[in-house]
């Protein structure tokens, strides 16, 4: 299968320099990777498995709002203030991922404008895509009165 | 095709979800000509009225239709009991034209009840040699159609995603286009078949174009207010097209500019 996600988005040189900072990590299914409100000081690129992003709903089970699969970016709150997670994340299936320390990556970006630009462009694309997806789902497209019935 | 409804007997009526049912019909006398996947019938619930419904299955001379009860006629059709009769006209419209995709990768993308017109296509494609990817989006796990059949669909990939997960759902959550990264297809050698709400169709087609699937190889099923189904009344007009006759399946090279026009 072709390479997708951040690994496809970054040019070869910046990609290699970024990957030098990555650490291989694994999360068994059900592991909480981070919680809402905690300090966002790292991010992950999924190699295999899936991660659910969820919102805490007081008095109820957390609501899953999005699933991220292989090559997907988990976490962008490390990039901008207040550097806190807006959502929680849990391994839905066993996950192998590369983990990146945000401070290390930001320091590298200071020294490497090409990586800085490519990574920022990619993260903005991810945020834009998730925003469009959320807006689409707000329309409740599959609801009963969106069926196009001629009645 | 016939202008007069022919009587068909209801042989089965089973629930798919809280508001959606699948009915099976057999001719009570004379049978209509064979339908192709993607075409539709006009179903007449006696005493209630007539609506267009795509065929959701075509095996053994049985017409299968999946209907969501959203109005008086569709609710009447959802309530038909085995042994009773309905009127059927058809077949109408253009089909998916699976034979023209011979040798190409197949990508089937369905949203909500849009899975129903794609079901006979998936069944027909199962015996072909193409790579078949089936991507399905539903509102909730409870709204998912044909749950008992999905395991056998898609070779190499069949994925399901929901907009809202409930307790116990361990599958994917998100819009259906997020499943594209998991499908195995070579874009310029792929024919895509898309059915669902038009915003979902546009979002999916746009993503496929971006990935390199040619517009003429993206086929979408469109829906307008069909009444006569014979291209005379004009209710289903979409620009230069009368969708009951020139659709519902249209190449995206024709559909894209029309779907961008406001009020069309």
TrEMBL record, chain A:
- InterPro entries found in the cross-reference section: cNMP-bd_dom (IPR000595), cNMP-bd_dom_sf (IPR018490), RmlC-like_jellyroll (IPR014710)
Q: Which Pfam families match?
A: cNMP_binding
Source taxon at top rank: Bacteria
Species classification: Bacteria, Bacillati, Actinomycetota, Actinomycetes, Streptosporangiales
* The name this protein goes by in its record: Cyclic nucleotide-binding domain-containing protein
The protein's matches in SMART domains, at most eight in alphabetical order, are given as: cNMP (SM00100)
Instruction: Enumerate the transmembrane spans.
Output: none
> Which organism is this entry from?
Streptosporangium nondiastaticum
Every Cyclic nucleotide-binding domain range: 6-75
Q: Which CDD domains match?
A: CAP_ED
TrEMBL record, chain B:
An example GO biological process term is: pyrimidine nucleotide biosynthetic process
Q: How is the cofactor bound?
A: Binds 1 [2Fe-2S] cluster per subunit.
What's the domain of life for this entry? Bacteria
Q: What are this entry's molecular-function GO terms?
A: 2 iron, 2 sulfur cluster binding; flavin adenine dinucleotide binding; metal ion binding; oxidoreductase activity
Keywords for this protein: 2Fe-2S, Iron, Iron-sulfur, Metal-binding
Q: Which cofactor does it need?
A: [2Fe-2S] cluster
Q: Where is the signal peptide?
A: none
**Per the database record, which ranges form the FAD-binding FR-type domain?**
3-98
Residues bound to [2Fe-2S] cluster are: 228, 233, 236, 244
Q: Which InterPro entries does the record match to this protein?
A: Cyt_c3_hydrogenase_gsu (IPR012165), Dihydroorotate_DH_Fe-S-bd (IPR019480), FAD-bd_FR_type (IPR017927), Flavoprot_Pyr_Nucl_cyt_Rdtase (IPR001709), FNR_nucleotide-bd (IPR039261), OxRdtase_FAD/NAD-bd (IPR001433), PyrK_electron_transfer (IPR050353), Riboflavin_synthase-like_b-brl (IPR017938)
Q: Spell out the protein name for this chain.
A: Oxidoreductase
Protein source organism: Streptosporangium nondiastaticum
